[in-house]
Automatic annotation (TrEMBL):
InterPro entries named among the record's database cross-references: Ub_conjugating_enzyme, UBC, UBQ-conjugating_AS, UBQ-conjugating_enzyme/RWD
Keyword Nucleotide-binding on entry: yes
Protein name: UBC core domain-containing protein
PANTHER family membership: UBIQUITIN-CONJUGATING ENZYME E2
Organism: Naumovozyma dairenensis (strain ATCC 10597 / BCRC 20456 / CBS 421 / NBRC 0211 / NRRL Y-12639) (Saccharomyces dairenensis)
Amino acid sequence: MSNRKSTAASLLLRQYRELTDPKKAIPSFHIELDDDSNLFVWNIGVMVLNEDSIYHGGYFKAQMRFPEDFPFSPPQFRFTPAIYHPNVYRDGRLCISILHQGGDPMTDEPDAETWSPVQTVESVLISIVSLLEDPNISSPANVDAAVDYRKNQEQYKQRVKMEVERSKQDIPAGFQMPTSHSAYVSQSKSPEPEQTKYATDNFWYDSDLEEGDDVYNYEDYKEGEGEGDDESMEFEEDGDSIDTDSVMDRKQPIKADDEFEDDVEEVNKAEQK
């Protein structure tokens, strides 16, 4: 596997673990890997928790695909199936500035609103939920939906309500739909005292970690150290693999840089090798 692809996989693993950690997960999203051996394709359930929204109560299936040079190129996002929305194409692809590559002279989008390497999956997902409730009708992907949104609000609402009801069939078995109250509790919950000292040094903390346990270190992985562990697992794509030192199984914290920008710098260094 190329250095570029392996560093992208390591970064995606960090963000996946954070977004699926019960202590930190955002209730609006239910995230799973499409294939346990492939970090580059995520299946996502999108939910709007605002009870005043016409999208409230729906479970909108979507998929995110990440490029091998992530985070330098944006992921692709597609609703599966497509939903009726001014900024969703009929094939389910989403038209949103944050997923467009910056610096394109063919568009009039400000670079500040387009993709940059410091964006995260979390920031993208939050922007998507915001767009559902507040469409950008100045640049529609679905003209019919944009016209209905502007001129036939009641018809638009009825169409969305039908899709909300249909989407409930896609709720995974045993999955409990979050509520606005659960979102409030999640956002306001203070970390436990023993978690605090790990907050700035690690993305994920496991309260069962005992003193002396190993910590998965990204720098060691990048240099190829620690490989060959009997407990290791691999993520594979197109015949390539990345040894993650059984991070997901052992639930050990991953040592992170103080700022996300440092991760981008590491990817830069890897690309230059």
